[in-house]
Amino acid sequence: MERTLVVGVDGSPESRAAADWAAREAVRRDLHVRVVHAWSWQPLALPVDHDREAWARRAREVLDGTQAELGRRHPRLSLTVEAVADVPVPALLRAAKEAEMLVIGSRGHGVLAGFLLGSYGQQLIAAAECPVVSVRARHGTAVPGSDDGEVVVGQQGGVADSAGVLGFAFEAAASRRAPLRAVRAWSPPPVYGYSPGSMWIADRFAGLEPFEKAALEQALEPWRTRYPEVDVVAHVELGGAGHVLLSAASDAGLLVVGRQIRESAPGARIGSTAHAVLHHSACPVAVVPHR
Questions:
Q1: What b/e sequence results for 156-189 when a residue is b if at least 16 CB atoms lie within 10 Å of its CB, and e otherwise?
Q2: N or C: less crowded end of the chain, CB within 10 Å?
């Protein structure tokens, strides 16, 4: 079965930046790109009543323009385009059902304001079964960045908890021939949170930070073996996960974080760490769902 990457486009500068990033990623990973433009025609009352044919023509123009631009920039790219008469979120979720990843765009507002993810983007990230990559654009153009920059990945929990996140990050680093920085942020428990178990851990590892370093190395071990060509830096730092990751990824080419699947939780919840980096990281952010 052909490995596929799906990218959603709507003709905006943000979606053009996402499509170009998706094309470069697909060439590196030998993936087929499926460009999807979702549009939903709703007849309007006065003063204007847009007809369905006009919406369909606009959809075709968006896809034709995207196909021509990507074909010109990436002549080796395997590419198909598709217009779907539906609202964006369910249409893109269906398209990405069997995909390796889904790529979307987001708009930048500057260093302080961060990036506008939008309700569609947050819903897609919260519901997608595959990794979702959010690509930035600012003032009508893609945010400057280098695909050659290191890949930064956030690791938490045990070996099984972070397997999908680390697997995605290692493959991304290998395809780029880029170094990988694996980051584990930790915070000491509050005074009332200390227990015989936490004291045993601190005693066994001569402190909590050595325990965190050992946990990170244990999680990395199988992936170092699988991808021996990837140069890995293990980074353990005291602090909140969002802040630590944003600092570590200031010059990165890609930031990878996890999102725990919460089937019983209502609404578009993506977790505080993913939320922070999606809104403030200048480089593309991949959010990988995991159990």
A1: beeeebbbebbbbbbbbbbbbebbbbbbbbbeee
A2: N
